[in-house]
Amino acid sequence: MTNARLTQMRRTARTAPSRVHARRAAAAAASTTEAPARRPRRIGRQRAPQRVQMSVRILLEDDVRLDAALEKTGLYLQDGVTEALRGWFKKLKIPVLPVPERPARD
Question: What is the rounded distance in angstroms from the CA atom of residue 67 to the CA atom of residue 61?
Answer without folding.
Answer: 10
